[in-house]
Amino acid sequence: MGIQVRQLRKSFGGTVAVNGIDLDINDGEMLVLLGPSGCGKTTSMRCIAGLEAPDSGHITINGRTVFDGQSGTNVPVNKRHVGMVFQSYAIWPHLTVFENVSFPLDMEGVAPAEITRRVGEVLELVGLAGMDHRGASYLSGGQMQRVALARSLVMRPDVLLFDEPLSNLDARLRDHLRVQLRELQTQLKITSVYVTHDQREALALADQIVVMQAGRVLQKGDPIELYNHPATNTVAEFLGYTNVFEVDVVSGDAAGSEVSFKANGRRLQAGPAPGGNANSLCVCVRPDHVSLRALAAGDDAPVGNAIAGEVILASFLGSHMQYRVRTGEREIWEVLSADVAAGTRLGSRVALSIEPRHLQVLAKDA
């Protein structure tokens, strides 16, 4: 049955942290709350866990009401049957791996033989088999994070909550554990909520993504749909669109539009403009949707849907090149090119070509 959240509000003093949000997390799915620090994502998750008491709203877990502002229902955290993996690991360094993982079962009074069996099962599951008696202080950061995950899993929770659990790890280990987390979550089919500010993490882990800002939900949906069709410039930026520019729409219909860049008046063909009464508009383009080619000397007016510019950064990233191209006094484009042998260097004059369908016209957030 999953988790349902309705009109959840939470404030701290005079500051509203969560402002009337609705969430639906289907049974066995991973929902990722994505947004910058202070957007309300961690507070929302802590309200689901029972670590914060909302001001108002309604929360159900697997059909059971755990919070209702009108009736005053507020089930304590230890009765909600949720597991939580924290950013700080919360591992006791003076205890062994076994003792850390078995702690919640000890608190529940589970029989010793059953504790041994269940701890053995989850340690095998997270790749720590045979490390039962190792002291926690001798573990690496990745191993400590797996101990924290095992401690939550050993409870066999209805819901698993993750509060930026990989943010303290180095990039390579973070990528590795992210894959393992996704494998475990899909294998065990545990309804999960994951909080992060990292768009790569969100896209890799989620069945659904909810983008938040200032305590509100900006957009929610399937990761692929969200990535390909962000609703506003803020959502686009959270999802890794680095080329976002303010524009005016000169003309257009359902098939496409012509836009004028506010910074310099340049005109390009773009996708259709959004409906509604948006006062401000912008275009967004993914760096991998921009084609780059060298310009001949004196050729500063490329034909087609293209812009001339100067390379101000050329960085080799193994499988591709990253370029930064200045096309105007206040306009810099990011480009990712799979052509790593192009020979384009710092200071090169280049043309940037973009297919109109890849220039998405969006409403600009205030």
Task: Give a quick precis of the structure.
The protein has 366 residues and is α+β, with helices and mostly antiparallel strands. Helix 2 crosses helix 3, helix 2 runs parallel beside helix 4 and helix 3 crosses helix 4. The protein has eight helices and 21 strands.
Salient structural properties:
366 residues, alpha+beta, Rossmann fold, OB fold (Dihydrolipoamide Acetyltransferase, E2P), 2 domains, 6-stranded mixed β-sheet, 36% strand
Task: Describe the protein in words.
It is a single chain. By secondary structure, the protein is an alpha+beta fold. The chain has two domains: 3-228, P-loop containing nucleotide triphosphate hydrolases (Rossmann fold); 241-366, Nucleic acid-binding proteins (OB fold (Dihydrolipoamide Acetyltransferase, E2P), Beta Barrel). The chain is built from eight helices and 21 strands. It has helices spanning 41-49, 97-108, 112-125, 141-153, 171-188, 199-205, 223-228, 233-238; strands at 3-12, 15-25, 30-34, 56-61, 64-68, 73-74, 82-85, 159-163, 191-196, 208-213, 216-221, 243-253, 256-261, 267-270, 281-285, 291-294, 306-316, 321-328, 331-337, 349-353, 360-363. The strands form four sheets. Strands 7-8-9-3-10-11 form a six-stranded mixed beta sheet, with helices on both faces. Strand 12 (243-253) and strand 13 form a beta hairpin. The radius of gyration is 25 Å and the shape is globular. The mean pLDDT is 89.
